[in-house]
Amino acid sequence: MWKVLAPVDLRFDTEPQVEYAAGVAGVLGAELNLLHVSTARWYQHSHRLGWPPSAWGSRTPDLDIHRLVLAGPVPETVARYADHIDADLLLITTRTYSSRTRPWRRSMTAEIMKATRRPVLIRKEIDADLGGCFGSRQILCVVGLDGQDAGVLSHAQDLAVRTRAELIFLHVVPPVSEGLLAYGLANFSSRPLSAEFAAQRLAELTRNMHVSVRSFIKTGSATKCIASAARENAADLVLTARMIPGSGFERSGAYTAISELLFPL
Length: 265
Hints:
This protein is of the alpha/beta class. The chain has two domains: 3-130, Rossmann fold (3-Layer(aba) Sandwich); 138-259, 3-Layer(aba) Sandwich (Rossmann fold). It has helices at residues 15-28, 74-85, 108-115, 150-163, 178-186, 195-205, 222-232; strands spanning 3-7, 31-38, 65-71, 89-94, 120-124, 138-142, 166-173, 213-219, 237-240, 257-259. A ten-stranded mixed β-sheet has the order 3-2-1-4-5-10-9-6-7-8, with helices on both faces. Helix 3 (108-115) links the parallel strand 4 and strand 5 (120-124). Helix 2 crosses helix 3 (108-115). The protein is globular and about 55 Å long. The two termini are 30 Å apart. The model is unreliable at 127-132 and 244-265 (pLDDT under 50).
């Protein structure tokens, strides 16, 4: 059984977030762990709400839900607890702020992702009318074809089996430029720089998959190509082994991120 860890902030109404987390855990057949991290900062709201009804299984009586409150810095505490329970997935709901109106606010989501190497599912703050719905009919999986896709392939296939979804593999070939040619001369064996070579390597990569698979190649900006591919295929999830430059959550190091946030559909 998988374990899903969902950090929540009990200083606010978390009913929509917990409902969504319960929906994700239910679809994946997973145990749900809800974690509130108390920092006791002087500038934070002193009023704290209790656990919402959905955290006690009011709508999902068959779901195994655990609730815990810990004290400490949020990113490190979440990462340590995820390691402690051996979480298979971190589910994070994030807010978006304008850099001009909130220049001092840092991204807690980005800090958590820097602190952990575990798969992370990111979703924008859920509107009240969305409820706890969760579906995974099509999963868009972005691969680099540079020999470092083993982790994302494993997670993609596991998710597809658990959710009975179709996998759609995408590789983005960057547009030709002097910088790209210089990169190719130095790294010609690690990443395909032509659509033909990329299609050949992608076919080899997906040949032995045990789920429904489609694949295609796009040329251009990574963010624009992934966003358009997600819209064209009505993807429920975007799965990538690294954050895409320009998405706002760049970081170094290899990790897996499952995202509904980076490219809103």
